[in-house]
Design a protein that fits this description.
Structural class: alpha/beta
Shape: globular
Order of helices and strands: EHEHEHEHHEEEEHHEHEH
Length: about 260
């Protein structure tokens, strides 16, 4: 019998709720685990607090998302490599198998220049998977800016492991099914969401946009994928907790249905 693919919840999916509320929602709504988005919420960067939340809610931490966003540039200091070391430390302490990391911003020149080799060295040193996530060009009107180096698409570079995010593929105008097939066994991690092709990174509930979420999940499941699928949606516009929970439950049900083999 095939082993069912786990479906976990990113703590970012309850923002502006807290990391603690992410664990609570994941446990109460029936998710299989949690991805910790290390961010501006102090608890998210506190290993002891994360271990306590995981134990209290009996929710395993399946992955740690390193603090790579513009708003988290000062979390765990300003050295990007130190952030990745700290992310591995947290992952080991809480029992996670994956660190999710974005490609460097283009203006992080020294970091970007050695990033591909540096990720390989980190994997060897820490014995953990660093899954580099697909991003997208930044667009303003008709102008396009390549904000990431060596590039926003990790499938095109020599990383051992990649994360595919379907909101990001939507913003980039890419086909996530083709990306998954091109990545092959390097696909280690999935952020399931949706998008309408907007220049904005929307993180819609899967099935509510134009991405081939169903085909993507079926393709990944049929490939023998043994990584983690993490729901990473934007619920900021939910008018109340009940509406947020409807979104989280719909995303979970959609993902479980189409990722089953």
């Amino acid at each position: 019998m095939p082993v069912p693919i786990r479906v976990s919840l990113s703590t970012s999916s309850v923002y502006p709720g807290s990391t603690a509320s992410g664990f609570e929602a994941a446990a109460r709504l029936g998710y299989d685990g949690v991805e910790v988005m290390v961010g501006i919420d102090d608890v998210s960067a506190d290993i002891t607090a994360i271990k306590a939340l995981s134990a209290f809610h009996e929710m395993p931490v399946v992955s740690v998302h390193a603090p790579c966003l513009l708003v988290t540039q000062r979390v765990w200091g300003s050295d990007p490599w130190e952030k990745l070391h700290r992310s591995a430390e947290m992952a080991h302490e809480v029992g996670a198998s994956v660190v999710v990391v974005h490609p460097p911003f283009r203006w992080q020149r020294d970091y970007a220049r050695t990033f591909v080799d540096g990720i390989a060295e980190l994997e060897a040193r820490h014995g953990i998977t660093y899954a580099v996530e697909n991003m997208y060009p930044w667009r303003t009107g008709k102008r396009e800016f390549q904000a990431y180096a060596p590039g926003w698409d990790p499938v095109e570079h020599d990383y051992a492991h990649v994360t595919l995010d379907l909101s990001h593929s939507s913003t980039a105008g890419d086909d996530p099914v083709a990306m998954a097939r091109a990545a092959g066994e390097r696909l280690a991690h999935v952020h399931i969401a949706d998008g309408s092709g907007s220049a904005k990174d929307e993180h819609l509930v899967p099935g509510r946009g134009t991405q081939p979420c169903r085909e993507f999940l079926e393709t990944v499941a049929a490939s023998g994928f043994d990584g983690e699928i993490v729901v990473e949606i934007n619920t900021r516009k939910a008018k109340d907790q009940a509406e947020r929970e409807v979104d989280l439950l719909e995303a979970l049900a959609f993902t479980r249905l189409h990722a089953s083999t």
